[in-house]
Specification:
single chain, alpha/beta, Rossmann fold, 2 domains, 8-stranded mixed beta sheet, two-stranded antiparallel ribbon, 6 helices, 10 strands, 34% helix
Length: 193
C-alpha cells in the first residue's frame, strides 16, 4: 500500500510541475511568486550544450571512434563552471562532450561548436574569416555577430536569452539546423530577419 501511495504522490508531483510550467509559458503576464532568476551565462551554457543535439554536421566531418566532440571557447570564459557542468557525462552520437578553452583561432579549428568572446570587431572579423567554410558552428553574444558572418548570436529580451541564426553562414559551413531549434530563433537570411 505504501508503495502505491508513493507512486501516486510522485505522479501527482510531476503532474503539478508540468501544469505549473505550462501556466508560466501560456500565461506570461500573470504575477508569479518571485524566484531567483537563472544567470544568463548559465542559460547560454545550456543552450551551447543543446545546440549539439539540434545541429547536424556533414558526414565528411564525422569523428573517429572515441574522439571527443569539442565545444570550445575562444577568448575570455564568460560561463564560469556552468559549461563544464552542462556537459558532464554527456555524449553526442557516442562521442564524449569536452570543453576546451583557446587563446587563438588556430588552436580551435578542431571544434564542433565555438563560442567566440573577443573584444574587438577586427579580431572577430579575422576569426570568422579564418574558419569560414569549416564545419564549426560559431556562437557569440557580440552585437552584430550574426550579421557579420557568425552563425548564432545570443541576445537578451525582457530578461530572457534569445538567439539569432544566420542561415547563410550555417549553409556555408555545410551544417543543418533542426527546424525545432529554428522555431525558437530569430532567423536571418540574406534579406535580413
Amino acid at each position: 500500500m505504501q508503495t502505491l501511495i508513493r507512486s501516486l504522490n510522485h505522479q501527482i508531483d510531476n503532474t503539478v510541475k508540468y501544469i505549473l510550467l505550462l501556466l508560466i509559458f501560456v500565461c506570461p503576464g500573470t504575477s508569479w511568486p518571485q524566484v531567483n532568476p537563472v544567470p544568463s551565462s548559465e542559460v547560454k551554457a545550456v543552450f551551447l550544450f543543446n545546440f549539439a543535439n539540434f545541429v547536424d554536421w556533414p558526414s565528411t566531418s564525422l569523428l573517429s571512434p572515441g574522439e571527443p566532440f569539442i565545444i570550445g571557447v575562444l577568448g575570455e570564459n564568460p560561463f564560469g563552471s556552468y559549461l563544464e557542468k552542462s556537459v558532464l557525462n554527456e555524449k553526442k552520437d557516442g562521442h564524449p562532450l569536452v570543453i576546451k578553452y583557446f587563446s587563438n583561432i588556430e588552436e580551435a579549428k578542431n571544434c564542433r561548436i565555438l563560442f567566440i568572446n573577443l573584444q574587438s570587431p577586427e579580431q572577430l572579423h579575422h576569426t570568422l574569416m579564418a574558419i569560414k567554410g569549416l564545419n564549426i558552428l560559431t556562437v557569440s553574444d557580440a552585437p552584430e555577430f550574426a550579421k557579420s558572418g557568425g552563425m548564432i548570436r545570443f541576445f537578451i529580451v525582457n530578461n530572457k536569452v534569445r538567439f539569432q541564426v544566420n542561415m547563410e553562414a550555417v549553409k556555408d559551413a555545410n551544417l543543418v539546423i533542426s527546424s525545432k531549434m529554428l522555431r525558437l530563433a530569430e532567423v536571418l537570411n540574406s534579406e535580413g530577419p
